[in-house]
Amino acid sequence: MDEVLTIGQLARQAGMGVSAIRFYEQKGLIEGPPRNKSGYRLYSPKMVEKVRFIKNCRDLGFSLRTIADLLKLCFTNNEAVDCASVQARIKKQHDAIQKQYEVLNQQREKLEQLLAACPVENDSEQCTFIQVMLD
């Protein structure tokens, strides 16, 4: 019989929790595996690669929908990978993160200005922060 992995073994080898594996299965990112007589899920060792791919995509902030698209593009049997389509999704994620970075940078700069304008020794009834936030 071919080597199989339980959900716990798959989770350990992929570096994530069992609940994440079940979640990805529920969301349709991985196929529901066959089960043994006791009802345990039995995964192919090849599933480790796919689950790691999903985990790495999540770590980069890709949505589940985009990950599903990437899985179709990258894990379709016997077909060449459409690199242009993959790159388009990567570019879209890059641009979204760049926008978030810019927003966070603006927020950080405003907070630094607030910190500079609000001296610690100022115990007056009119806190500088409150005045700035009311304007």
Write the layout of secondary structure elements.
Elements: H1 7-14, H2 18-26, H3 46-59, H4 64-74, H5 83-117, H6 128-134
Helix pairs in contact: 1-2, 1-3, 4-5
Mean pLDDT: 89
Main sheet, how many strands, which sense, barrel?
A: none
The proportion of residues forming helix, as a percent range, comes to 55-70%
CATH topology term of the largest domain = Multidrug-efflux Transporter Regulator, Chain: A, Domain 2
Please indicate the percent range of residues in DSSP E strands (runs of 2 or more): under 5%
Task: Describe the protein's architecture and organization.
The protein has 135 residues and is mainly alpha-helical. 62% of the residues lie in helices and 0% in strands. The protein folds into 2 domains: 1-62, Multidrug-efflux Transporter Regulator, Chain: A, Domain 2; 82-135. The protein contains 6 helices and no strands. α1 packs across α3 (46-59).
What's the gist of this structure?
This protein has 135 residues and is mainly α. It contains six helices and no strands. The radius of gyration is 24 Å and the shape is elongated.
